[in-house]
Amino acid sequence: MARPLRGPGLDSAAGQPTQLLRRMMVIRAFEAALAARPDHGFQLFSAGQEAVAVGLCAALETGDQLLTSGRSIAPALARGLDPGRVMAEILGRVAGPARGKGGRGHLAWPSEGFFGAHAVVGGNLSIAAGVALAFQIEGRRDVVACLFGDGACGAGALHETLNIAALWKLPLVLVCDNNQLSVSTPRSQALAPARLSDLAAPFGIPGATVDGMDVAAVRDAAARFVARARVGDGPALLECVSERFSSHSTATRETRPKDQMAAILARCPIARLAGELQRAGELGSADIAALEGDVAREVALAVAFANASPLPDPAEALTDVG
Amino acid sequence: MSAEPVAGTMKLFFREAIARALREEMQADARVILLGQDVGAFGGSYKEFARLQAQFGPARVRDTPVAEAAMVGLGVGAAAAGLRPLVSITYMDFLMLGLDPLVNYAAKARFKTGGQITVPLVVKTTAGARGQGVAHSQCLEAWMMGVPGLAVVAPSTPADAYGLLKAALRHDGPVLYVDHKRLFPTAGEVPLAETVLPLGRAATRRQGRDVTVVSHSFMTRVALEAAERLATEAISCEVIDLRSLAPLDLDTVASSAARTGALLTLEEGQLTCGIGAEIAFQVREQAGPIRTARVGAAPAPVSSNPVLEHAALPDAERVAAAVRRLLDAPPAERP
Fold first, then answer.
1. Per-domain residue ranges of chain A
2. CATH architecture of B9-191
3. Which residues contact B234 (CB under 8 A, 6 or more apart)?
4. Phi/psi of residue A186, each to 5°?
């Protein structure tokens, strides 16, 4: 095996391989359960990109904050948010952390370290820098991570944020989940840099590109950048090259040909880690089956919890404005 | 206004009133910070931030690069995380570069998080024409009045600048605070005692019987000048200064218009979908048929050429002429 499965200096159980695998499996099963519902509404799924969210979150501590793009289900669950509450929010039920008013594109639960999703491409970048600025001014040792897609990398928001974050040494880790597509436009036709992490160099901050289908590689690279930011060494840019297993959204048709999709689906980050753990003798097929049953039960409970919660009173359309 | 000092007040220029409000709020609350271009040692384009960095240090009074989108975003994020930032956008024309974080995030954060996040942010900017051309002159307040969750204030006196800025810095949601270039050279009496002026309250600047003229910011002075001229013709104008555009103090305007029977709206911005259109409609919804007329900028860019700038903008004579036409018109009829 080319690299150790266990991360250096990560003593939390959440960073260990079986837990990483479990988290990715929960996300996959959660999204499948959501997709199967006729009332799922407009969704952007993370299938194929679980390793980026789970690897990044394994590098974060309790007091840190995570901000994400609108493709937010994987990062929310990876951050450890209760799946039942998340399912309730996505289905518009009042038991959601935002009483069902935010939905998938704006999932937020700041007290749990998930400052929130924001469904404007690149829109959360400068917001995340502002949260990091508040942490810096308040003298906190907490770090802010911002997860965004390759689609955000052509926007001025990223370049303005990189400049200010570098200049002020903000405790900010920018993580690009590069799924190589902006809706239907290939990254190669939208962005000039050879590697998106090359965008770090002009601002004098560290950058790295890792395989986003390899959860341990994401975790280790993120942990290195988070550790720097935590001790005041400033921001960094991490690119994780991933694959999107479904079309951009539930309202968008798939544009990739079938043979290309077959090759993409064969790169599944969950199957990859499960296989590695089996080959390393850490898990047997009975363990995997037990894990699958456990995950299915957790997702079923989440769905039942959400189903039991009502939709909001229409009067809530006018509350919490301003 | 009397040349004698008024008891319990002191004469301040706009820039001094703004600096005083910020100084008091920064002293009282360590969460208040200031971000903007040239706000540090330079003290702001109008010296309205003079000596604040020397007093509060470069961590709380920060010069930023020219990056309005990120500047507003930083302020929004810092506010969402618990600070109370003021972000200075030098000219209102440049505010449009920062509208995404202000409109898409700040104005919606409390709603979309079910009250988990609030954004106590002030974006301070300067509107209005004063010889600086098509991209340094615009009054875009009307654009911002229709954003649910965003408050908009635009004072016309140093006392209101002081009191409204303090209220804005204490407000728990985002506030757009709008100065005007032609107001910076003016001075006025400001209370010596600490004063906070609540958002959403208009002021009647002049009482009158024949027509209600409603305006805000620098155009309030134009309205008062027009009222002086019309008084020599035995036309009595009531002049209302909105001060706050969102929330809007409709009751003060509507009750005045109901009493005078005629309403003239005056703004430096565009008339199409403008503040006057909105107010006139709302007044008629509340008070019934009232003669109304609007005065605003010509439907054209505002040039730095003084002849063309003057041709595009309202002045006291144009306002007076519009009032005369309005009062000569037949009474409004019920539709």
1. 13-304
2. 3-Layer(aba) Sandwich (3.40)
3. none
4. -65, 145
Q: Is B249 helix (H, G, I), strand (E, B) or coil?
A: coil
Contacts of B119 in chain A (CB under 8 A): none
Question: Side-chain half-sphere of A5: how many Cα atoms within 13 Å?
Answer: 19
| Catalytic residue list contains B136 | yes
Sheet architecture: strand order including B291-297 = B203-206, B237-241, B211-215, B262-270, B291-297
Given a contact cutoff of 8 angstroms between Cβ atoms, the answer to whether A64 and A144 are in contact is: yes
Checking if the pLDDT of A1 tops 90, the result is no
- Top pLDDT among A130 and B6 is at A130
Same fold across B9-191 and B203-328: yes
Distances (CA, A) of B221 to A76, A121, B215, B233, B280: 53, 43, 9, 19, 20
Does residue A3 have a pLDDT over 80?
A: no
DSSP-derived pairing of the beta strands B9-13 and B187-191: antiparallel
CATH topology of domain B203-328: Rossmann fold (3.40.50)
Residue of A nearest to B81 (CA): A131
Burial of B193 (0-12, 13-18, 19+ CB in 10 A): exposed
CB contact under 8 A, B65 and A160: yes
- CATH number for region A13-304: 3.40.50.970
pLDDT tens string A234-247 = 999 999 999 999 99
Torsion of CA B131, B136, B139, B143, to 10 degrees: 160
Q: Which of A65, A93, A94, A126 to mutate to test the interface with B (most CBs of B within 10 A)?
A: A126
Minimum-distance CB partner of B74 among A108, A111, A126 = A126
- Per-residue pLDDT, B4: 65
Q: Could you give the CA distance from residue A149 to residue A116 in angstroms, rounded to a whole number?
A: 15
State the pTM of this model: 0.95
**CA–CA separation, A133 vs A229, rounded Å?**
12
Q: Is B177 helix (H, G, I), strand (E, B) or coil?
A: strand
Residue of B253, B208, B249 lying closest to B226 (CA atoms): B208
Locate the domains of chain B by residue range. Answer: 9-191, 203-328
Q: How far is CA A290 from CA A16, A173, A276, A280, A300, in A?
A: 18, 35, 17, 18, 15
- Gap from A94 CA to chain B (nearest CA, Å): 10
Distance CA B232, CA B219 (A): 20
A-chain CB neighbours of B112 within 8 Å are 98, 101-102, 106, 108
Residue A12 has what pLDDT? 55
Whether B116 and A108 lie within 8 Å, measured CB to CB: yes
